[in-house]
Amino acid sequence: EAGVAQSPRYKIIEKRQSVAFWCNPISGHATLYWYQQILGQGPKLLIQFQNNGVVDDSQLPKDRFSAERLKGVDSTLKIQPAKLEDSAVYLCASSPFGQGAYSSPLHFGNGTRLTVT
Amino acid sequence: SQQGEEDPQALSIQEGENATMNCSYKTSINNLQWYRQNSGRGLVHLILIRSNEREKHSGRLRVTLDTSKKSSSLLITASRAADTASYFCATSGGSYIPTFGRGTSLIVHP
């Protein structure tokens, strides 16, 4: 099966500019996650979708970050305006099942490395 | 939110040796997962162990879970240079959303 696709692979922008990341999950996967991974740290959840509904966005800085998952498939994550501390790798992951008695493994894309100068 | 913390932060061994890394967490969990991340790549799932399980094996990997001590360990036997990567544990509680630790950086010297 094709893996999780993310683009672009790299992005360099100046602070206060806007940027958008795109994710195409594995076909049929109901749940989609966006994680932020700062260098030397583990991934931190930004938002979780189940189909096209938001399950958890409690750690998403909503004054500058937004995300959508139209039609329950592809997703975009936007930052506007970007700050220096947003420099990180943005990882998209998907899993076949929603919340339930048993969690299923996450399938990650290779991420988008964002550098804000 | 609960979060696993891996120990050690860095581990350097010779090919053929065993590598053991530990994960501790603070609150009760439904399951715990281990992932590997090669430099510049996404995370790859290794093993999921549920709270009612104590040990699982997958190839050269062995994971244990001690819920009374709120800890887990990942053992890689007969390590290879290709095992060089960062390893993360991820805990899931009531929300079933995996929360990751900072990871252990493993270097296996040929």
Form type of chain B = globular
- Backbone shape of chain A: globular
Q: Indicate the radius of gyration of chain A in whole angstroms.
A: 14 Å
- Distance between the amino and carboxyl termini of chain B: 39 Å
Helix/strand order of chain B, N-terminal first:
EEEEEEEEEEE
Per DSSP E runs of 2 or more residues, the count of β-strands of chain B stands at 11
What is the β-strand count of chain A? 11
| Distance between the ends of chain A | 37 Å
Q: What kind of sheet is the major sheet of chain A?
A: 7 strands, mixed
What is the H/E order of chain A?
Answer: EEEEEEEEEEE
- Could you say which structural class the secondary elements and strand pairing of chain A correspond to? mainly beta
Uncertain regions of chain B: pLDDT < 50 for 5+ in a row? none
Provide the gyration radius of chain B in Å: 13 Å
Assembly type of the chains comes to: heterodimer
Helical content of chain B (DSSP H or I, runs of 4+)? under 10%
Plain-language structure description:
The complex is a heterodimer of chains A (117) and B (110). Chain A is an all-beta fold and 117 residues long. Chain A has strands at residues 5-7, 10-13, 19-24, 31-37, 44-50, 53-56, 65-68, 75-79, 88-95, 107-108, 112-116. Helices cover 0% and strands 47% of the residues of chain A. In chain A, the strands form two sheets. In chain A, strands 2, 4, 5, 6, 9, 10 and 11 form a seven-stranded mixed beta sheet that branches. A four-stranded antiparallel beta sheet of chain A has the order 1-3-8-7, with no helix packed on it. Chain A is globular and about 40 Å long. Chain B is mainly β. Chain B contains no helices and eleven strands. Chains A and B meet through strand 5 and strand 10 of A and strand 4, strand 5, strand 9 and strand 10 of B.
